[in-house]
Backbone:
């Protein structure tokens, strides 16, 4: 064990004995650990720093906006407003797809994707 670890451990024990750690927020509650399994190990520290600074990578910002737009679309009654939001949603999905390495043609996140698949599956194929 390094000398600095011994000093740090001694300081922590002193703080516990003096009651300095008794009123910390979240005391007695389980830790909220983030699932980092999808993040490469060499990027985890950088992502944690960005998250703590309330700064998301551009891809995650776009994903967040896409989820918000989808939620807004669900509750809209006005057809014109719905159409405007669908155009914006499709544009944001296209931007996200362009950031990825995979072809955007392979993505299934477009608003019209399900309608196109439904339409194609209902028509008989000519041989």
Residues:
């Amino acid at each position: 064990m390094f000398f600095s670890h011994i000093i740090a451990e001694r300081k922590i024990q002193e703080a516990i004995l003096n009651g300095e750690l008794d009123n910390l927020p979240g005391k007695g509650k389980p830790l909220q650990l983030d699932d980092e399994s999808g993040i490469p190990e060499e990027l985890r520290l950088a992502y944690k720093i960005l998250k703590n600074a309330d700064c998301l990578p551009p891809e995650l910002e776009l994903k967040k906006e896409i989820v918000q737009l989808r939620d807004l679309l669900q509750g809209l009654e006005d057809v014109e407003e719905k159409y405007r939001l669908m155009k914006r949603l499709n544009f944001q999905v296209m931007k996200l797809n362009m950031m990825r390495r995979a072809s955007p043609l392979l993505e299934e996140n477009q608003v019209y994707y399900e309608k196109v698949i439904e339409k194609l599956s209902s028509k008989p194929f000519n041989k």
